[in-house]
Amino acid sequence: MRRQFECRRLFHVSLLVVSLILSFFSSQVIEAQEFPTKPITLIAPYGPGGTFDLTGRALVSVAMDYLGQPLIFQLKPGGGGVIGSDMVANAAPDGYTLLFAGPGPNSTIPAIEGRSKGPDDLTAVCRINYSCPIALVRSDSPIKTFKELIDWAKANPGKLTFGHTGVWGATDLPWRQIKLMTGIVTRDVPHTGGGPALLALLGGQVQFIFNMGTQSKPHIKAGKIRPLAILDSQRDPELPDVPTVKETGFNVTYFLWKGIAAPKGTPRPIVDKLAAAFKKMTEDSSFKSIVKQFGDDIQYLGPDELAKIWKEEYETHKELGKAIKK
């Protein structure tokens, strides 16, 4: 009799557990079907005028057609991207607050300094695109090649001023690698994003920067700045005469990806719905036209693909950080 009672109780408990699990997933499905019911905020942890700012505004211009709700784009610079990243990570995991994530604040800083938020703290939604930094000087600079830049820095220790997007930011890490290889000493000046760093170069406050083609190519075409090398694995078709950094003798490449991330714990059905909407945005002819105008490409990846390369990059940067800190 007692055994029958225990079996009966175990059966009812099992039914209750199954019922709760089904109820949980059912509520998530219903929530995802209704989502979104209000505007979604996309936070970029950088300053104005940079590649994230430009791409984010291009997304906003087409988002309503695919989300059914407005996409509100906000810039939250500070701490090399830490402030904006922390803000999203601490938001409710409901899909209404998203991060325009990238390698600086979301791979490099958490991997090397333990600050900001990385792949273990956020949920990957999708990658929009990636681009590679270009080494740039002003057109009136006597430096004509990347080798000349390194040679000048060696001959003038501590005098070359390098502008970058922030501590351990998207353009700081590859330059630190090159300094480690060459032993040169430079004066590195942090800014709140690629736009401000470019303005500093144009204004003569710094002598050299790595900057994305998104904002630098119009100034290259206008003859205001000179490209020395690109951190891609191959030459840019729009700048066929500009060698890769690798071609100049330094085995360094760097890819600045731009992706969408959500707070950790965001339900997968909502993540999938967001990913599908952003994919449609990247396929929109108007969006593609805008992105092409400022010299960027589109390379969409879904949640699982982004999560994989993001984690791999995080681990790579952790090892690079150990080498640089020695």
Keywords for this structure?
2 domains; alpha/beta; D-Maltodextrin-Binding Protein, domain 2; 5-stranded mixed beta sheet; 10 strands; 326 residues
Give an overview in words.
- This protein is of the alpha/beta class and 326 residues long.
- Helix content is 48%, strand content 18%.
- The chain contains 11 helices and 10 strands.
- A 5-stranded mixed β-sheet has the order 2-1-3-10-4, sandwiched between helices. Strands 7-6-8-5-9 form a 5-stranded mixed β-sheet, covered by helices on one side.
- α2 links the parallel β1 and β2 (71-75).
- α2 (51-67) crosses α9 and α4 crosses α11 (303-325).
- The longest helix is centred in the N-terminal third of the chain and has 33 residues, at 2-34.
- The chain is globular.
- It starts with a helix and ends with a helix.
- 45% of the residues are buried.
- The model is unreliable at 22-28 (pLDDT under 50).
